[in-house]
Amino acid sequence: MSLFDLHCDTLYAAYQNGYSLAVNPLHIDLTRGRLYTPWCQVFAVWVPDSLRGNAAFSFCCKVLEFARAEEAACSPRFLFARDGKTLKEEGHCRECVGILAVENGAAIGGKIENIAELAARGVRILTLTWNGENEWGYGCSCDARLGLKPFGKAALTALEEVGIIPDVSHLNEGGFWDVVAHTTKPFIATHSLSATVHPHPRNLNDRQFEEIVRRGGLVGLSLCGEHLGESSFDRVRRHAERFLSLGGEKTLALGGDLDGTVLPPEWQGIAVYEHLREYLSQKGWNDSLIEAVFFKNAANFLESTLHSPKLPV
Ligand SMILES: [Zn+2]
Asked: Is 103:50 a contact under the CB 8 Å cutoff?
């Protein structure tokens, strides 16, 4: 089966523990990912809220260098796509095509010019905040009424200019509506669930989801138990079906947060998607809906949206 997953923290976990991407005891490695063909995976570099300024930027760069070294070590069965054309053409002839992301705008160390540097290093998606406050704005653990800071609005413009897609997962609601007001292109929520099914500040309310649909973006379903409200496939289905009821047939995708959250052991890391697919099929999801959510929606969006940036020389 095909799989396109919009968020995992495997790079951070592998870097911190000295593991490889090829084989490791984490949720995701390239060996177990052979279950899926094609398999496209967004690999995020998580920058903890404890890091700010140059410490955040240099940590991010170190993990990006680790990612490049792993790409070289696992070549040719694995590569990071820098544009939509590569994503489309290489998906079927590699075991995995990765896309580099950064989770937490703190990674630019408060300097707008570092956005171009991250783009040059292959980053194509950036999550504006984690749960706390950073230079851009406020995460979901902060007051929901606070919006983006002037720096965050300027940084958003710079993201759009270099072609990095803004990710609103983790952002508070005030910041979300500022992203709507200060961007023109579609944006995404790589790993978020429905606040109507389970009220949690990390989850999106119906208005937010409908706005992402209207803008032509994507929302990846997270498998995080705390945000689901209960770690069960039935609960995943309820979140998905809430979003589908809001017109999300082309918006809904997967963003499991593997290696960023605790999964029930029986979900078996990346093998979870095979079991989830079977479950949804038994519950009456037809093949074309499953294919859209498990692969096509994300592939269609990113194949047409990802471009190598035009950077100043
Ligand atoms: Zn996250």
From this structure: no
Residue 10 belongs to a domain = yes
Query: Could you tell me the distance, in angstroms and rounded to a whole number, from the CA of residue 183 to the centre of ligand 1?
Result: 22
300 within a domain of the structure (yes/no): yes
Q: Is 150 exposed, middle or buried (0-12, 13-18, 19+ CB in 10 A)?
A: exposed
> Quick check: is 313 in a domain?
no
Does the structure show a pLDDT above 90 at 54?
yes
Reading the block at residue 177, the tokens are 């509506």
Task: Give the number of other CB atoms < 10 A from CB of residue 88.
Answer: 19
Q: Considering the chain, what percentage of its residues have pLDDT values greater than 90?
A: 96
For residues 109-128, average pLDDT = 97
Instruction: Report the CATH number at residue 294.
Output: 3.20.20.140
Ligand 1 centroid, distance to 103 Cα (angstroms): 7
Give the total number of structural domains in the chain. Answer: 1
What's the 170 CA to ligand 1 centre distance in angstroms?
Answer: 7
Q: For residue 86, is pLDDT > 60?
A: yes
CA of 92 to the centre of ligand 1 (A): 28
Residue ranges making up the domain that contains 254: 3-305
What digits encode the pLDDT tens for the residues 201-226?
999 999 999 999 999 999 999 999 99
Which pLDDT score is estimated for 92?
A: 81
CA distances from 120 to 81, 117, 142, 149 (A): 13, 5, 32, 25
Does residue 128 fall inside a structural domain? yes
Average pLDDT over residues 138-164: 97
